[in-house]
Structure formats: C-alpha cells, structure tokens
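Incident log, structure service

09:12 report received: a user says their structure output differs between two submissions of the same chain.
09:20 pulled the input from the user's history:
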Amino acid sequence: MTEPTLYPESGFRRLRIDLAYDGTNFSGWGVQPDRRTVQEVVETALRTVAQSPAQTIVAGRTDAGVHATGQVIHVDLPESLELEDLVYKLNRILDEDVRINAIEIAPTAFHARFSALRRYYEYRILDENKAIPPLARFNTESWYRPLDVDVMNNASALLLGTHNFAAFCKFREGATTIRTLETFQWRRDREGYLVGDVVADAFCYSMVRNLVGAIVCVADGRKDPEWISTLLENKERVSDSLVFPGRGLTLYKVDYPDAVELLERAKKTVARREEEDN
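09:34 re-ran on a clean worker, output below:
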C-alpha cells in the first residue's frame, strides 16, 4: 500500500470539505473515463476557483447511485486562496445535485480516508409492494414482500464484529475484505419505511448493498438465518442478483478522532491494512 500523504507541500494548506450529493445521476464517487462522477465534478469546480490542480481524497468511495449527506474529503490548495465565500463560489459552479456544506482548514495530519474512525450508512426500504411517493423515490428501494424487522435484526446481529467479509464484497485486486461491523440494526419509522443503520470502521466495495440483500433473503423467508453465518464462514460470494440497488443507500456521517490523535490513527489504519493484505 502506498504511504498516504499526511502533510501538504510547502505553499499549500489542507482543507477539510464536508459535502452532500444525490447519487442518482452519478457513476459513483471515483473518476471514470466517459462517466459522470462526484469526484470529477467536485475537482473541476475546485480547479476553476483555485486556478490550481486539485486532487481530492474521500472518506468513503460511494458506489453508483449511492447518496451522501455527510461525506468528507480533503484537498491541498494554495495558501493564497481566499477561503471567504469559497463555499458560495463552489456551489454556484456545481450542479444542484452536489452541495458543499462546509470548508475549514484541516488539523495537522488530517487524512479524510485514513484518519476516519468509522463510517455511518443508512438503507431505506418500503416493503409489501407499497407505492413509493415521488419525492422518496431517490433514496428508497421497494420490495414486494413483507419484511419482519425482528427477523432482520436477528439475522443482522450474526454479522457484527471483525470478520473477513469476502462473501459480501465485490472482488478488487489487492484489497482487503477484513472489516469491523459495529452496528447493523433495523427499525420501522413512523411512515412505515424500514431503515437500516450500518456502521463500520470501513466498508469494502459494494459491501452494504450485499449485506442488505442477504438480510432481505432471510426476512422474507427465502433463506434461514444460518445461511448468513455459512456465507460468512465459507466466504461464499453472495449472488449479484441479490445485491440491492444503490439508490436506497446514503452515507450520512464520518467519525474522526481528536486532532491530537489524527496522526496515530492514520498510521494505525495503514499498518493494519498492510498486515491484512499480506
């Protein structure tokens, strides 16, 4: 693994940027040839305002169609760049499906990805083949069968802890699939939507949507709860046909340690990933 850059070059300063986006019309976060991505449009706006190269580092690389209300990035820009009204200027340039919420000078050794303690996601489902209201269609997935929230929680609890989640991740060369799942809990809100809170130190590619698809298989009676444990133990890849779409998923928060602990956290994260990859 390449050592992360924890300090900006001379003449630059590191900015922490908090942003939100509707992922509907994006092919995910990361830049891809001939595709519209969040990273590409954000970096284009930053380069336009700063008149300087702008390479962003993101806390969570969201998949195609996935939304964010609490995404975090960092970028190193010239110290001469005036920060006053920078949020306003960027939002004037960006399309309305991306909004910059806040910009601040990052603490020393801040790294949006490797300093993060945990990421928080929410998945929304409307079951029993109920009609999704037009304004909810962007962040809610429908399901035609009734889902039992207690069954969902019992099955989800089997996945908590530190495991190799290879069964629930799309393969990526050289990427570790060992993660610590801290929270996986479902509730039904007052409007009848099923809302799943999923929190982990980090997530591998497509992991949350794989987890949701597997839990729904148990909740609607197609599979027994023991199937979840078997998948996890045998690292048997969940079928792509069971993976839930991106539109129901939203990254809503990223936790970071206190400023004095940022450097140690980044070093610890990198060391652990290198050990897991080996």
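09:41 both user submissions now match this output. Likely a transient worker issue. Closing.
09:42 reviewer note: The mean pLDDT is 94. The first helix runs from residue 38 to 50.
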